[in-house]
Design goal:
CATH superfamily: Vaccinia Virus protein VP39
CATH class: Alpha Beta
Bound molecules: S-adenosyl-L-homocysteine
Structural class: alpha/beta
Strand order of the largest sheet: 3-2-1-4-5-7-6
Radius of gyration: 17 Å
Strand content: 15-25%
Number of strands: 7
CATH topology: Rossmann fold
CATH architecture: 3-Layer(aba) Sandwich
């Protein structure tokens, strides 16, 4: 894992003094994964590439420094926690609907001594009731398809801020389907940034949606409604 992370940090121009914290995070992840379902990725090399370097690639695509960031459906902390470890002045909120995962996240933050991280056990659509239009950046990876994801996430973004959805390069149909949701929720047309995870031949896609006006208070709706009748 060390060699992969060092080469990746070089490629991404990140300070290597953060690598030990990521390694400790990986240990806690793989240890805890034996007793709780946190990740299907269990080879250390895959954790380095498919979790850490995938998430850290975002730092080369947009500026996170000093920003308030909410990561919704963060699971075992992706992408939010690697971003915070590499860019410590992020004010981070990790949100997940599963309490056990949030307890794990809190223990990682405590052990790594991270400050300015809130680990919140909530459904994103409920979290929006108190935190709407409050974040510079909202991130999400592998949580829902775009029309639903946007309804969960875009109401949390400040006007002038950005929703950043980590997707596969095969998301053109999803993007087409999301055009209406983007407009209704106050977003500008999506900007696409494809990137290759350093040291691999894997290309992923960051879908960026800038918020240009407030989202109607009608959104997000209850999850069952979003699913039944997506925007
Ligand atoms: N983002 C992580 C986890 C993806 S799995 C990663 O890329 O590895 C999806 C996660 O989203 C799960 O942990 C699930 O509990 C959470 N989730 C799904 N719907 C949610 C919702 N409406 N609000 C909050 N969390 C949600």
């Amino acid at each position: 894992m060390r060699a992969i992370l060092e080469a990746g940090f070089d490629a991404l121009h990140l300070p290597k003094d953060r690598i030990p914290a990521l390694e400790r995070y990986a240990e806690l992840l793989l240890e805890t994964n034996k007793v709780m379902n946190l990740t299907a990725i269990t080879e250390p090399a895959d954790v380095a590439n498919l979790h850490f370097l995938d998430c850290l690639s975002l730092l080369t695509l947009m500026d996170f420094s000093g920003k308030s960031v909410a990561d919704i459906g963060t699971g075992a902390g992706f992408p939010g926690l690697p971003l915070k470890i590499a860019e410590p002045d992020i004010q981070l909120t990790l949100v997940d609907a599963l309490g056990k995962r949030v307890t794990f996240l809190q223990s990682v933050c405590d052990e790594l001594g991270l400050s300015d991280v809130a680990c919140v056990h909530a459904r994103a659509e409920e979290f929006a009731a108190t935190k709407r239009e409050q974040f510079d950046i909202v991130t999400s990876r592998a949580v829902a398809n775009l029309p639903i994801l946007l309804e969960l996430g875009l109401p949390l973004v400040k006007v002038g801020g950005t929703f950043a959805a980590m997707k596969s390069v095969e998301c053109d149909d999803e993007l087409k389907a999301a055009a209406h949701a983007i407009e209704v929720l106050g977003g500008a047309p999506a900007e696409i940034k494809d990137y290759t995870i350093p040291g691999t031949e894997i290309t992923h896609r960051l879908v960026l949606i800038r918020k240009v006006k407030k989202s109607s208070e009608k959104y997000p709706r209850m999850f069952a409604k979003m699913k039944k009748n997506p925007l």
